[in-house]
Amino acid sequence: MRRAFIVLAVYAFTAFAANAWIEGIPVAGGGTDQDYLQYDDGFAYWFHWGGSWRGVWFNTDDFMPGMIAFVLDFSEYWFFHHVSYPWDVSDFYAEVWNGDYMTPMALLDQTQVTAIHYTPVYANYSTPVVAGVDFWGLVNTEMSSGGWPSILGDNTAPSVDHSYYSDDFFIWEPWGIGDYFIRIEGGFISGALDNVTWGEIKSSF
Predict the structure, then answer these.
(1) Within its chain, how far is the Cα of 193 from the centroid?
(2) What is the reported pLDDT for 8?
(3) Residue 201's CB: how many other CB atoms inside 10 A?
(4) Buried/exposed 84-100: b ≥16 CB within 10 Å, e otherwise
(5) pLDDT digits (tens, 9 = 90+) for 78-129
(6) Which backbone phi and psi does 125 adopt, to 5 degrees?
């Protein structure tokens, strides 16, 4: 049943402005607890290749108010390949930046990852990445000539924009249609960072 549904989704689409519509397909998650952060609703209706950078701005207050930092264990990304919009490259840079809703500001990690069609891919951090209350999970497609690979997105218009894209890394446009399938797993930090030990950071996972 699921295979037939996915085949239907591949052929039922409409494209405009670097977005293409597909029938809603479920996107299973890799996280199991409250430390798994996502803004998407779990059903993909679009794939998007606009901009050289696409990303999700995370604010930990949306998930657990009052925390002072978040320690990333891994980042999860979902992509979609269509024969009418072939990728020129499957590799991308998965990046984590500190920064508020205005723009990413300080690079914390860059990991090269290979995208796979309709399958989760991960940037795993052997050394925990400590981010602030506001941080970004980005797809950097500078290895591509056309913004590939194309990221999946849902169709639930956000009350607050969290998914953005940029051609130059200076001007960030809200995607507006929904949210990208970029998810984060890790642990919240509640105490002052000066008093958090390495062991406490590792035990937060």
Answers:
(1) 25
(2) 33
(3) 18
(4) ebebeebebbbbbbbbe
(5) 999 999 999 999 999 999 999 999 999 999 999 999 999 999 999 999 899 9
(6) -110, 105
Q: How many Cα atoms occupy the beta-carbon half-sphere of 201 within 13 Å?
A: 20
Q: Give the tokens for residue 170.
A: 């200076």
Structure token pair of residue 100 = 């508020």
Please say whether the beta carbons of 203 and 81 come within 8 A: no
Structure tokens at 152: 């999946």
Asked if 178 and 40 count as a contact pair (C-beta separation under 8 A), the reply is yes
Encoded tokens for 115 = 């995208």
Q: With contact defined as beta carbons under 8 Å apart, do 44 and 78 qualify?
A: yes
Secondary structure of the chain as H, E, C letters: CHHHHHHHHHHCEEEECCEEEEEEEECCCCCCCCCEECCCCCEEEEEECCCCEEEEEEEHHHCCCCCCEEEEEEEEECECCECCECCCCCEEEEEEEECCCCCCCEEEEEEEEECCECCCEEEEEEEEEEECCEEEEEEECCCCCCCCCCEEECCCCCCCCCEEEECCCCCCEECCCCCECEEEEEEEECCCHHHCCHHHHHHCC
- Both tokens of 93, joined, read 């840079």
